[in-house]
Amino acid sequence: MNIDNIKKIELEITSDCNAACPGCARTLNLGKFEVTGFSVTDLKRMFPTTRHIMNKQFKFCGVLGDPVVNPDFIDMVEYIVENNGYVDISTNGAYNTADWWTRLGKLSSENNNVFVSFAIDGHKETNHIYRVNTKWSVLERNLEAYSIAGGRGKWIYIVFDHNEYELETARAHSKKLGFDFATRTGMRNSYHDWIAKIKKKDEQKKIITEEKVITTSGKKEHSKVEKVKELDVFIEKAQSGQVTKEEEQSVLRTIKCKLIHQGEIYISSKQTMWPCCFLFDSTVWNRDNIKQKLSDYGDEWNSLKNKTVDDVLTHPWFDAILEESWNTNHEKHLPRCVKTCGHMQAYHNEIKWEKENVV
Q: In angstroms, rounded to a whole number, what is the distance separating the alpha carbons of residues 294 and 180?
């Protein structure tokens, strides 16, 4: 593969964030991560020509950070747009000034290829419960500024037990702003409850921390939970040598890889390149001993600080070993590939749009 085969690039341009969502690795390991990121100069080095950008979708998102916290963010969007790339931005929306959002809104209005996906999980009374530390007054102001400037927006709402009652209010607000609206379900939310730690003032005006259990139940759960649990059982049996070759191949044939089958790559805030956000997330937690399994490649094998995208794509691990390692007896086997992309990506988020043909 080379850059011409790549259709979508997910960029985590910073590991910093204004929020403290309870399911985020940064929140669960508070103070343990160095804040990293890259500049527009770094982006231009990674994607130096129109050939590297034209007709490709650049998704500003990430595992740890919110892209709008990066001070070079709008400069990066402008560079991609100037080279005929598409931009989709995922943000909690509660950071930066109204003037900043007006600028971004005008950029979106003037180009048909810039969209902002606002991750707003509730409305005035509940959004802060999952999007901890976000202020509704700031978010509402920013939404208004972006919308008035003509910005193209999407409101994506994770429905939890605690915020379901505000769904209709959010839907109406989104329509007023001129945004597309969707509900989202994440597999992790169906596997886990989260503990949100919310700071508030008590009667004596002292700052206290209130804990709120965040749950997902009933129809709000991911529809493919049982399919992913089947993969859990398969992984457990494979690790103890209890699956036949036929059983193994029947599962491995269902893997739909973001890189191999969809032409996607992920670039972390450390400027390392991965096939997907899931495997980068594995390095954050060292799941499946991924750091040890890939340690013989050295520290810079997938770094875009000193390599090109094409250099990394032609590295033996990207070129062949990744797919070979789906076999459970391979020395570099990563069960995460089976878990997240087996059964045709059953683990992936489910997003239900309320407008047809939304990308």
A: 41
